[in-house]
Amino acid sequence: MRARWFCLFALLSGCSASAPDSPPGPLPPNSFAFAVFGDGPYRSWEVGRFEKLIDDVNTADLAWFIHVGDIFWYPCSDANYHKTLDMLNTIQHPIVYTPGDNEWADCGEMIAGKHDPQERLRFLRSVFFARPGRTIGACPMRVTSQAETPTYSEFVENVRWVRGGFMFITVHVLLTPPEAETDEQALRRGGAAIAWMDDAFAIARRDSLSGIMIAMQGDPGLNYHRHIPQSFMPFIARLEEQTRGFAGQVVLIHGDSHMQRVDQPLKNEDGVPAPNFWRIESYGSPDIGWVRVVVDSVAGKIVSVEPRKMQGFGTR
């Protein structure tokens, strides 16, 4: 078992960005692929690269497109949400989106328009999650929303779905400034994320799934010099506990730090990485790019991770 994990890590960590003028290669037999993107475009000159990204993903054989949040920088105006959604809906794949701090928690800043963050969160949900249980994108797909559970009815953004032996989930986990939410609101959001993750692991064990992939916005601080923000600690502690008790792969997909990487950051007291845990992070502003993740649906494992960074400043 350990040899299998080691070989896979060697494959993933050896990935390199492919030339943006070459289309993604064909998929191996019995496999499917999905895209990971987040944290952009922020500035006007990044929009041209994002248009190239849309063209690139629209030529790719993808099951879906995971957006890990921070859809814009500012302002938090109604028009900016709708403009961003319209642009995303030109992507010809289902888009599974989990919110970032830029589009609600940081909206109280002067540069963002001095909005009420909680009001912006409600508005965000009404625009991007208008149909709970359906993704956005030109070709929406059905997912299971946590809002279907009466206890967590407001959390339309936390969803899950299964394919190729993997459970995929999104959880609304990010850093928020103190003025964005009360302690009670923060605890409820964090509690909902943990409950949703616990449900995913329970289903994966019950159904003998090969792995779990968890997508969220916030960088949990799992770096060489481990520095987990206080607000992330309950979620990461439970993630570590669940990972240790799970035989399959666990993959954390996130954004926030704008650093494209694939690594194994969960380590024990002796610095030894958890053999079944990986982290995948996509690019972030000013770099605009996406990551193609290919999954063998028969073996139930990731077989490749391909970063695709966009170049140039022009539009289509």
Summary tags:
6 helices, five-stranded mixed β-sheet, Purple Acid Phosphatase, chain A, domain 2, alpha/beta, 19% strand, single chain, seven-stranded mixed β-sheet, 316 residues, disordered N terminus
Describe the secondary structure blueprint for this structure.
Elements (H helix, E strand, L loop, with lengths): L1 H12 L17 E7 L6 H15 L6 E3 L10 H11 L6 E3 L19 H12 L15 E2 L13 E5 L2 E5 L12 H24 L4 E5 L17 H12 L4 E6 L6 E3 L13 E5 L7 E8 L4 E9 L7
Parallel strand pairs: 1-2, 2-3, 6-7, 7-8, 8-10
Antiparallel strand pairs: 1-11, 4-5, 5-6, 9-10, 11-12
Helix pairs in contact: 3-4, 5-6
Summary, kept brief:
The chain is an alpha/beta fold and 316 residues long. The protein is built from six helices and twelve strands.
